[in-house]
Each structure stands twice: as structure tokens, then as C-alpha cells.
Fold this sequence. Notes:
Radius of gyration of chain B: 19 Å
Mean pLDDT of chain B: 96
CATH superfamily of the largest domain in chain A: Thiamin diphosphate (ThDP)-binding fold, Pyr/PP domains
Radius of gyration of chain A: 19 Å
Low-confidence stretches of chain A: none
Structural class of chain B: alpha/beta
Number of helices of chain B: 10
Strand order of the largest sheet of chain A: 3-2-4-5-7-6-12
Distance between the termini of chain B: 59 Å
Structural class of chain A: alpha/beta
Order of helices and strands of chain B: HHEHHEHEHEEEEHEHHH
Low-confidence stretches of chain B: none
Strand order of the largest sheet of chain B: 2-1-3-4-8-7
Largest sheet of chain A: 7 strands, mixed
Helix content of chain B: 40-55%
CATH topology of the largest domain in chain A: Rossmann fold
CATH architecture of chain B: 3-Layer(aba) Sandwich
Number of helices of chain A: 12
Number of domains of chain B: 1
CATH architecture of the largest domain in chain A: 3-Layer(aba) Sandwich
Largest interface: A-B, 43 and 48 residues
Oligomer: heterodimer
Order of helices and strands of chain A: EHEHEHEHHEHEHEEEEHEEHEHEHH
CATH class of chain B: Alpha Beta
CATH superfamily of chain B: Thiamin diphosphate (ThDP)-binding fold, Pyr/PP domains
Amino acid sequence: MSETKQLNIVQAINLALHDAMEADPKVLILGEEVGDRQEGGVMGVTKGLSTKYGEDRVKSTPISETAIIGAAIGASIGGYRPVAEIMLMNFITVPMDMIVNHAAKLRFMSGGQTSVPIVIRTMTGVGFSTGGQHSDYLEAWFAHTAGIKVVAPSNPDDAYGLMRSAIEDNDPVLFIENLPTYWTPGPVTCQHVPIGKAKVALEGKDVTIIAHSKMVTEALTAAKTLAAEGISVEIVDLRTISPWDRATVLASVEKTGRAIVVHEAVKQFGIGAEIASVIAEDLWGKLQAPVRRLGGAFSAVPFSKPLETAFAPTAPVIATAIRDIVAA
Amino acid sequence: MSNYPRPDAATLLEIYKKATLIKQNDERIIKQMMAGKLVMPYYSPRGQEIIPSALSVSLDDDDYICTIYRGLHDMLAKGFPLGEMWAELAGKVTGTCKGKGGPMHLTHPAKGMMVTTGVVGSSMPIATGLGWAAKLDGKNRVSVANFGDGAANIGSFHESLNMAALWKLPVIFVCQNNQYAEHTAFTESTLISQLSTRAAGYGMPGVTVNGNDPDEMYGAAKIAIDRARAGEGPTLIEALTFRFNGHLMGDAGHYMKAGDYAAAQKLDPMPILRKRLVAEGIASEDALAAIEKAIDAEIDVAMADAYAADYPDVIELKRDVFAEEIA
């Protein structure tokens, strides 16, 4: 489409929103402070959109999460493609009825007569000392809900491409953005990234790391360290959490014979449990070690820096787990 | 309310026809449930027929409505096809939702019947969004949110009314105050005597009317709909009414104060309107009897077709989860 640009994730998503609004007059934006009079979002992700496309299509809202998602659902049933922002993932607990009982289910309950093509953007992640109510990864709740798709890009190129695909998708998509990696630059090709397709972020032969969002970055760092030790790591970046790309994951694990699923969300009942189960069910007998999981501690995200750092997997923790599984 | 627009004779008769369809359909459903032929959770709208009937005569097919589990009256008044409704109630594949929604999720976009929710309070935020879509479309379409008095105490009421007023959306919030939130009396849920006074808190007009009176209900709805179509924003209508069959079918109503039910029965809007039509010479006794008979015949057909139809195939579990069939 166009030449490759060097952008960070904030800029990549902003560009995707601009391009989507330009391409389709039915695309709308709503959320707290998304308009330029409110500085285009707390992190500036929606900067410039209300000025360019008008305040009828780009609406800053009151702090009313239920009404934000309700308005997005209603507008989508009325033929539009709203991108609603729930500022932080923890705040998504407020409009859960709208998301789970309505956005995700209306297509099914209406026998396909109505659909809810909305995107819900939300940011989260540990690392900025934001504590127990501003940092959680809650993707498993939505992956457990039939009728809503969940994506979580790890880099600017996928952020752009997944946003374009999410907006054009005919079903609701939860779009998870990681706060600490927002400003990491990378090449952006401005191509759509299909929903439901993982990417092999690094090829290797000894072990497969299955990760998404910031954990891909941590895994890549771990892999570099381990390459010097002679351990060859393959990394599958899920990109889409639901519906997840079983084929790519299983092909990789069949090749390496070892798998570790890594996520920042609490380990217990996280998406790693589902993925590990499927790997065990499908590849039993071909595995050289039991599938392992790394995830957040079973606690609220703590404030104090040493505790916060210990809460979620990091590159050294991932590297240790890889050494263990390869030695097993 | 003396300055309200009033329904003319033809409109009154139209209101009676809609309300009679609702009443007779309700009676038939209950009969079928008692006979064990229909098995479903049922929230009867008996007693609330006039509200949507007097409202819908001012709506077009492409105006949007959202309603709740007690919503068959809202749907039928808006023109929901009886055959597809009965098939859905019976869980058949010929139902409007292929049997996948049931009584609490009836949907029929062709008549503007966009969402039926089983969650108290959840019609309002979505109707607000439909109002936003209507405003963007610029075709003078309006969006109606139906809900009960119980829902006026949920956060979504506050958020939706505030947002709809702020954005001047063409939404009519119709609070059907039937005096009970499930088993809790209205007076035990709030200290205020009129829910419509809350509208002032959002900068929109609010009015309390006798929802069982076709003149008052028609007038209030007409003013609100005209106002919405003119781009002047939303209105809250509190329509006072009474539900004769309790919360859920089988509800014995032990929570009601002695005498309340009997008092409400004396004000049953259906015989009152019927008498009035005859007294004012709008329709003869014979003409009304013919209307009622024709409606019964229509229900006969819808019911028979529903019972004769097939259940959905199990493959339907994989369809309509997403646009693409799932594996």
C-alpha cells in the first residue's frame, strides 16, 4: 500500500484510526477524552481525529463506561463501526454487562439478524507502578466468552494491521494495548494483519515460547541471551488470543517438542491453561517435556517496585524456565 | 395535559386494535403454558397494553425500539410478525431468531425491533447508541428505550439519560412504572414519588402520565417523538400502569398490599377503552367483536404454524457466534 514508516505503537494505532476513518465514513470513535479539545486521549492515541473528522464522528464522552459501550453497540446495530475506548483494562469491569451479555451475544441471540461490529480499545500492563486497579491483563475473561474476539499486538506493525482488521471485522473485537511498550518504535508496513493468525516472531528448534503483547518482547530478549548459550528458541506471537491460531502453535511445538506459554495475566485459569491443554491433548507422545506456563502472581498487581517487578514474567524468568525445560 | 395532542377516532381504534392483539396474545400464551404446550420463562405484559399501542401509532417501521424481557406488548405494537414470534416462543427454527433467542431476546430489525434484553436497565444504553446512529443518518428516525420502574434505579439509567441529553439524541425513554420491581414495591425502592422528576437532573423534559389512558399516553409520546424528530433531544416519559400477572408467570403476588390488585383491576384499561369506543360511536359492538375474532384467528394460525415447524439443527450452536461459522 505505502512505504514502510518508523513509528511507535501510539503513532501506529493513531495512523490506523486515521486511515480507517478516511476509508469508511461509518467508522466512529468514542471514549473519555478522545477528542482534541481533551488532548486526543490521555496518551494521545486519538490525536487529530476529531479535528479532521468532526465531533459528530469522534465523540468525547462523560466518564460513563456502560453508556460508552452501550452507545457503541447501538450505533453498530444501526450500521456504524464504532471504536470505543475504555481507558484502562481494569475499568472494563464497569461495562461488563454491555460487553458480555450484549455485544458478544446479540448476533447469536438474534439468530444472525443483528451484529455488533465494534472495537473496544483498552490499555494496561505492569511497569509504571500503577498498582492493583490500573495494570491488570483480563484477556482470559473475554477469551472465555463466545462472540467476542480478542487481539493484543506486541509491536507497531501488528498494532496498525490488527486495528485495521478489527475495525473491518463484523464482530466485536477487544483490542488490548500495553502501556509500557507504547513508545517502542518499529517499522510499520501499513498492511492489514488478519485476525486469528499468529506469527512466528523468531524461528528456533529447541523450544517454543507462546506469548502475546509485552511478553513477546520479554521472550525475544530471553532468546538473545540463550542463543549465546547454544539454546535455539522459537517464539510464536499469538497476536489474536481468541480465536487463537492452533495450527501455527501446534506446528511449532510439534517441531520443537517443548512449549512454554507466557502471559502477564495471573497464571491461574489464564489463557495459558487452555493453550497448554490443547498442546497436551494434540501432541501427547511428541512432547519431550510437560508443557509449562509462566504468568502473573496470584495477587493484585502491587505498587512497590520490587514487588511489581516480581509480579509478572520478565526476560530473566523466561530464560530460566527455558533452560529448565531444555535440560529436562 | 389539556394542551396535549389527542388521538382522533381512527387513531383510537388503531390503538385498541394493537392493545387487543397484545391482550389476546397474552391470554393465549398463558393458556398454552398452562396446557404444557409452551415451556418458557414468561413475563406477561397484561395491563400495560395501552402504553406501546398509544406510542407506536406515532412511530414508523424504521424507528428503533429496544425493550426488555417484559416486552411482547412493545414488540406487537411496533408490528412484530405474530408467526415468527410464536415460532420463536416455541423454540422453532422458523422463529425470528431461529429459536436461539427465545422470549427474552426477540429481535426483528425489519420493524425496528432491534434489541430485547433480559437484563434490567440494559435497553437504555443501547437505545442511546441507536439514537446516535439515527442522528448521524439524518433521516429524522427516533429511538425508543422501554424499561421498568426498577431500571430507573440502575446506573445505566443515569449514564444513558445524561449522554442522550448531552448529545441531543432523538431518544424517547419510556419508563413503564407498573409499581413493582420484581417483588419490590415502587415506594420501597425510592423516596421520590415521580420518576419523571429525575429528567430535570439531566437537562431533559420529563413527564408522568397515566399510561393506561390512551389520550394522555398518545399526547405525551407524540410530543416527545416530534421533539426528537425535530432534533431537540430526548424526553423521559414515566407511564403509570399495573401488571396483572406479577413478575414471572406463576408469581402469586404475596408481596402486594391487600387491595392493590383489586383496585388496579377496576382500572383495567382494556374494558375501559372498549366501552369508550362504543359510547363515543367510534366503533359498534359488532365491529369490535369482529376485530377480536379476527385477531384470535390470526393467533390460531401463528400458533399452529409454530407447533408444526421444526426445531433448529444442533449445527446452529456453531452459527451466529461469529459472522463465520466456527469449527
